[in-house]
C-alpha cells in the first residue's frame, strides 16, 4: 500500500498539559514514520493520548500546554522549528489537515455547509470566496452528496452527511496527510461502513496518507496498513497491520484484540481488567504493569524501551529481547 517515500517522521514528540492537580504527561517518546499512501491506525483506550497526538501534529493546542517538544519532519524538514505564522501558512491544512474528533457536531449552526467547507481555502489559500464555494460544492459531490447540500444548514443534514462534509473540509486545501480522529464514532454501522469506503476511495484518488485514530480495532483493520498502539501516553507496539492482527506481541495489544467480538468463532470477548492510569502520576516502570497478568518485579522497577521483535515491529515490553 505504501510507496516507500517517507512523508512524516515523528521523533521523541512530547506533550504535557498543566492542570491544577499537576502536570499531565499526555504524550512521551512518540516515534513513527508515515510513508506516502500509508494508513497508520492509532489505537488505544479512552484517555491514552490519541487526540493529543493529533493536535500536536497540527499544532492546534489548548492554552494549558506545559511542554511541547520533539521533532516532526514533514518531507524531510523539521516543522517544529517553524514559528506559528509559518506553520499556519505552510503546514496546517496545506500539508496536514485534520478531521477533529466530533467534527460533525462542530459545524456552526448559522452558516451553510458549503461556506464552512470552503473556509480553509479562503483563510489559508486566500482564494476568492466564489471560487472556494465552487470547489466546496465539487468536493461535497465527490463525497457522494448532491451539490445542493452546500446550500443547506448543518441541522438539515444527517450525522453521516455532516461527517462527509467534515472530510470534504479537510481535503479542500489538497493536503498530503489527513488525520482522522474517530471519524466514524457515534455513527450507525452501515454509515460507518460507507464512510470507510469513501475514505478508501478518496485515499487512492488523491494518493493521501492517513493517520486514522480509532478505538475500534475492527474498523482499523479495514483501512490500515500500519498500527501504533498507545497506552498511557506512549506507543507500546508499532508494526504492519498484517503482523499486528496475526501476531500481536504486547500484552496490552493482545488484550485489545481479545476484546473484539467475532462473528465467525464462538470465542467470547475478554476484557482487560482495570482502567488506564492517571497521567499526572503514571505507574513506575512499565505503565501497564498494574493491569498486566505477565508482570514481574522488573516491570514495576524499570521502564522498557521499544524492543525490535521483527522487521518494522517494535514492542515496549520486558518479555522480549534480553529483557526477561
Ligand atoms: N486540555 C487538557 N488539559 C489537561 N489534560 C488534558 C487536556 N486534554 C486532554 N487531557 C488529558 O490528556 C490525556 C489524553 O487525552 P486525549 O484526549 O488525548 O485522549 P484520547 O486517547 O483521545 O481519548 P478518547 O478516546 O476519549 O478520545 C487524558 O488524561 C486527558 O484527560
Ligand atoms: S513490561 Fe511487564 S508489565 Fe509491561 S507489558 Fe511487558 S510483561 Fe506486562
Ligand atoms: Mg480522543
Task: Provide an overview of this structure.
By secondary structure, the chain is of the alpha/beta class. It has a single domain (6-95, 175-315), classed as Rossmann fold, CATH 3.40.50. The protein has helices at residues 50-58, 84-90, 113-125, 129-142, 159-171, 189-206, 217-223, 241-246, 251-258, 297-301; strands spanning 6-19, 22-35, 39-43, 65-74, 77-78, 96-99, 177-181, 209-214, 226-231, 234-240, 307-310, 313-315. The strands form two sheets. It has an eight-stranded mixed beta sheet with strand order 6-7-8-3-9-10-12-11, with helices on both faces. It has a four-stranded antiparallel beta sheet with strand order 2-1-4-5, with helices on one face. Strand 7 (177-181), helix 6 (189-206) and strand 8 form a beta-alpha-beta unit. Helix 3 crosses helix 4 (129-142) and helix 4 (129-142) packs across helix 5. The chain is globular. The two termini are 35 Å apart. The protein binds adenosine-5'-triphosphate, iron/sulfur cluster and magnesium ion. Adenosine-5'-triphosphate binds at residues 17, 19, 24, 26, 44, 46-52, 62, 64, 101, 215, 279.
